[in-house]
Design brief:
Layout lengths: L4 H30 L3 H27 L19 H28 L3 H31 L3 H11 L11
Length: 170
Amino acid sequence: MRLSNPMEQALNEQLYEELGSFYIYLAMAADFSAKQWPGMAKWMELQAKEELGHAMRFYRFILERGGQVRLKALPQPQESWETPLAAFSAALAHEQHITGRIHALVELARQHKDYPSEVFLQWFVTEQVEEEAQLEPIIHRLKLAGDHPPALFILDRELAAREEEGEEEE
């Protein structure tokens, strides 16, 4: 079953969003690195890599379904955040935006009775729950730390322990 035009267009838009997520998290990693927060920089670098993996899932799926991938230019991301809390809060707001987009894609797949796309998107529905859930405790701890340097250093060290996750194949 070939992708319908509306579904192909929507999946290409999500590919663009996922590449944008990669860009945003890479900008956050660069900002943290410049500000000497190596643990937070590593966390965001791994997040950027994960988002690139998500984009590639959309890329491959569009092609597998006989669609045409249409890439467009990405806007320049914000370059700096005032505090670690501001960056992680922006990351959560961004993930909530992506969650809404994934839910809209599921709805579109249902409207078009595009069952392969609906099944493909279920992985992302679950992934978005995880994305938001991993940010919320970090934000909570950053709020508790405030601008107390020793607490921020401890949190930075803990965030450095994040390990790269293997992308399971669909």
